[in-house]
User: Fold this.
Amino acid sequence: MSTVHEASPSAGRSAIGKLGLAWIILSFSIALHVVDEALTGFLDIYNPTVLALRAKLGFWPMPTFGFRQWFIGLSLGVVLLLALSPFVFRGSRWVRPLFYVLCVIMIGNALGHTMGTIFGQTVSSVRFARPAPGFYSSPLLLAASIYALLQLRKTRTTWAVVTICAGPVYLWARVRRPLQHDIDRILPGVGRTHR
Assistant:
């Protein structure tokens, strides 16, 4: 008999729904952040910062942008995020690593705008009036990213190793825990779960 207690399938669907909602909230938070940056002159700080870092270090991996290419590129990125929403709502596993990376980048982005506001500069040669461009939407971006990370954590799949005795033969299978109740239903009292 299994020692693992599982949540009902409807609880799993509810958790995946919350994960999808977190994706939508983060996507719209990013869209709002892009608009905030556009309206507050983000590129007037970003481009000189990149050029100053290239001059000081000899190389910097970030490109400079014209407003049009920057705004269209980020707008298309937000549209792509929204287009991926059905995969998140279905619980597709391949989108989870992308979601984690996006959350971490957006947390760094929000904190960067906050630090820029605190210090009033990005590098010593690039100073600006406070608050930093993009600061107003940074708290929402930070909150949406943290909420998304919490939902990702709640919906992660844990694995269980199941030993099934079939006469003289022992079979070991690595199965997703949501499938454990199926094993107990098919082979009652034969499977033991080891952590």
User: Anything to note?
Assistant: The mean pLDDT is 82.
